[in-house]
Amino acid sequence: MTEPEKRKWYQLDSRALSNLVVVFMGILLYLCLTHLPQVRSVVRAVLEVFTPFIAGFVIAYLLNTPVDFFEREVYKNAKGKRALSIVTVFLIAVAVIAILLQLILPQVTDSIRQLLSNLTGYLSNLDRMVQELAQRFHVEGEGLSNLVDHYNEFIRSLTSADMVKRITEFLTSSAPELWNFGMSVGNGVVNGVVTAMTAVIASVYMLSGKPRLVRQLKKLIYAVFPAGGANRILTVSGKANQIFVGFINGKLLDSAIIGVLCFLLCTLIKIPYAVLVSVVVGVTNVIPFFGPIIGAIPCIMILVIVNPWAALRFGILIIALQQFDGNILGPKILGDSTGLSAIWVLVAIVVGGGLFGFAGMLLGVPTFAVLYSLVKEWAEHRLEEKGLSIGEAVQSPAAK
Questions:
Q1: How many CB atoms lie within 10 A of CB 59?
Q2: I want to staple 337 with a disulfide (CB 3.0 to 4.6 A). Which of 145, 246, 326, 329 is the partner?
Q3: CB-based contacts of 18, cutoff 8 Å, min separation 6
């Protein structure tokens, strides 16, 4: 029996290699933190290059569920069923967007135009109402008087003829800057059109080549990682996809219903600019928990200028809608797609919004749900290794 070969000094075992990787990752993290502005600029430049493909992936991800439905249920016996499903879903999406724009956009534009044209009158009426309420309830004080004086000065500045002169002087002096701004906007529009077309084309390729792309990714994962690790990655990816699809599709449907319901109720109780405020409420409702409140704040600010009593009715309506959505409609549509309690939903929204803005507020909940399920599974596995059940761990004296 031959003696095993001695490992040479420069050969590393698996443990030493793992430690070396950890050290290099620590050094890389330190360099990234100490050179954060440079890292951000590089990341921003890379994201700008890949923006059309990221947008295409988002479009493909949103349309994948209806494409799979048409392929599975409608064109299951047809030749080229995948292509037929993609064409059908894109035609339906374009038709829905065109109908919504035709119905909503003109009314929203007209509402904004009327609001701006009648702004002076609205402000005058609001000023008159504030003074009447102050006299009726005998509200006096230097602070209120100063507030009314400043407010009257603001209204007079809006209605004075001198305002037109100041605007003309500003436009004349700022002509070069406005020209550069216009050129920048024009270039931005052209780039936006090119990016949108590239994103749509990329989404079509992603949807049509999805089966092949999935197979290629699986091959790559099994080639890079051990069999057990590859199986674990695919299991986690499948669970994450299930959570994200269920949450995003359900939230979009929920927001559409809330927007339509808000419009009907606003029309019923005679809220001014019902279409405008309903669109704002419906769009912001995609943000969990805080969505209706975030949408209500600018709407109430507008309605206070137009009709304060309508603003009060609208505030009560939003509270009722939020309760209906949170306790009845949302659970019916979303079910337990995230498995998170209210406190963790709140943490996910606050942290996600603080780090990534609107996208973080929207995607923070499903992302946190995936992390929560992984931590929960790991904890249960560790309890099994220690021979403890979940009930025993909870009821132990140290946990009380």
A1: 20
A2: 246
A3: none
The secondary structure of 316-345 as a DSSP string is HHHHHHHHHIIIIIHHHHHTTSS---HHHH
Q: For residue range 213-227, list pLDDT tens digits in order.
A: 888 888 888 888 888
pLDDT tens-digit map of 2-22: 445 565 555 556 666 677 778
H/E run at residue 19? helix 14-34
> CA–CA separation, 46 vs 131, rounded Å?
57
Does residue 126 fall inside a structural domain?
yes
φ, ψ (nearest 5 deg) of residue 312: -65, -45
How many whole angstroms separate alpha carbon 265 and alpha carbon 246?
A: 28
- Structural domains counted in the chain: 2
Domain that holds residue 220: 47-113+185-232
DSSP state of 139: -
Residue 399 covered by a domain: no
Shared domain check, 191 and 105: yes
